[in-house]
Design goal:
With 163 residues, the protein is mainly alpha-helical. It contains 9 helices and no strands. The longest helix is centred in the middle third of the chain and has 27 residues.
Length: 163
């Protein structure tokens, strides 16, 4: 925390005033990024009457657009995710964030499977985890080249569609 405060050009006590510790700081960073990117909160993803397959497409399209417009946010997310493999406190914060994303995707997938728009072979939760893993991997593999994410995500949607 001292190093972070120093790098930010602020007093250590000021940083502690806003963030009680490292976990709170990381939670704040993740909350900011999720809010800034509006992940899962676009008008199409929550609108009534929108087909689940369209909601999923809109979500994935928004991620690509955001990776193109704000690549630095995805770089920070990748660093936090990498750190979570070594640090239990960071892992806890990332897991909470992931649970919310997984719930969001699982809801869309369940509805799509019930309406026979999306394949039900994997199950909604497993498919949600696969989507999360693919998106996370693509944001790292395609860092700085967001357009390279479009084709694999389009293919993923085709695999999930029931047609």
């Amino acid at each position: 925390m001292r190093e972070i405060a120093q790098r930010a050009g602020m007093d250590h006590a000021t940083l502690h005033y806003y963030f009680a510790g490292k976990e709170a700081l990381i939670r704040g960073v993740l909350d900011y990024i999720v809010q800034e990117l509006s992940i899962g909160r676009g008008p199409t993803t929550h609108a009534k009457g929108i087909r689940p397959s369209r909601k999923l497409a809109a979500h994935l399209d928004a991620l690509v657009r955001q990776a193109r417009e704000k690549p630095e946010m995805f770089a920070v997310l990748a660093e936090i995710n990498a750190r979570s493999t070594r640090d239990p406190a960071v892992r806890s914060v990332v897991a909470q964030n992931d649970q919310a994303w997984k719930r969001f995707l699982t809801e869309i997938l369940r509805e799509g499977m019930q309406k026979k728009e999306l394949r039900a072979r994997l199950g909604a939760e497993t498919a949600a985890e696969a989507i999360m893993a693919m998106v996370r991997g693509l944001t790292v593999a395609c860092a700085g080249r967001a357009d390279s994410m479009e084709l694999p995500l389009r293919q993923l949607r085709m695999w999930l569609e029931a047609k």
